[in-house]
Design a protein that fits this description.
Elements (H helix, E strand, L loop, with lengths): L14 H20 L3 H4 L4 H10 L1 H21 L18
Length: 95
């Protein structure tokens, strides 16, 4: 049985998850500077932002682009962990 794996990085990520992640990373003030939208500037809340973003395609595209950029930044800042090799310290190493 083959499971279909989507190549879309936003697959399974809701708009609410994106907004919450951006707010956690940048805060409302910096988010309003990065994306000039009134719902991020005046009395910001996740609920009001979602309402606006769902009705405004260009604003949603801006949020999705910033979210993807923030994922890329996180990936480049965190080097991959070394692969654990259970046989690295084995006494019976083959030569």
């Amino acid at each position: 049985m083959n499971a279909h794996i989507s190549k879309d990085p936003l697959h399974g990520v809701t708009l609410e998850m994106q907004v919450n992640a951006l707010v956690d990373r940048y805060g409302w003030a910096e988010l309003a500077q990065r994306i000039s939208i009134n719902c991020f500037k005046n009395e910001p809340s996740v609920k009001s932002s979602l309402k606006f973003l769902r009705r405004t395609p260009w604003a949603r595209a801006e949020v999705e682009a910033l979210y993807l950029d923030s994922l890329h930044d996180l990936a480049s800042n965190n080097p991959p962990e070394p692969v654990f090799d259970p046989w690295a310290n084995s006494r019976n190493k083959k030569k």
